[in-house]
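Sample entry (256 residues):
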Amino acid sequence: MRPFLTASWRYLLMLNYEVDPDVLRPLVPSGTELDTWQGRTFASMVGFRFLDTRVRGLPVPFHRNFDEVNLRFYVRHFAEDGWRRGVVFVKEIVPRLAIATVARVLYNEPYVALPMRHVVAMEGAEAGAAGQLEYAWKANGRWQHLSATTRGAPRPSEPGSEEEFITEHYWGYTAQRDGGCAEYRVEHPRWSVWQVERSQLEVDVAGMYGERFVPFLRGKPSSAFVADGSAVAVFPGARLGPDTRTPPSPETSRAA
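Predicted structure, serialized as tokens:
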């Protein structure tokens, strides 16, 4: 199948917060369930560069390179090939109104368009020099941001690690207006990650994401790191149909 969208996602700054699963359950699309790591449920603030964007292989004038900041959490869906691990977005911020409008109208993705700016100072970071990242957006007359300083050189995530859990989800799930769910596949190679010396999240949590997230996003993140990123391919979505198969037992599914 031909990708719907191709791009390069670079310098993904990820601040990961442990969240009460009861906060996220009302947002879980039908046909999926919350995914956990070592019994813990996470939501992540993610900022990154969206580069060389093409739709059906064609560049879109003035919409090839931009920033994105999103709040996402993690789910899984039991399909014919087993468990598929994916993400659900609470809100996605981009600086281009056309991108946000198309995503909302056609796919029911929770995009908003806001003024954005970034600092990407990663020269020498591949060799271990300190790098600096900041992704910022302006809402209600106020600039908000997430930022971090990296340390050391990037390394592949360890199998079974929190970094692997956060970065290695290759499906997206979106609740639809009629109560259904759309699923799409995201293809990219395994990413390496930089550890973070210090990080900061400056955001109006209640105004951007709702009161339910205030106790969690105002605390210290469980982890913070930067993924190097890569070329990505996003494939056309499909609705999840009724699933009559019996998923694995709880003991088996926990090991998945």
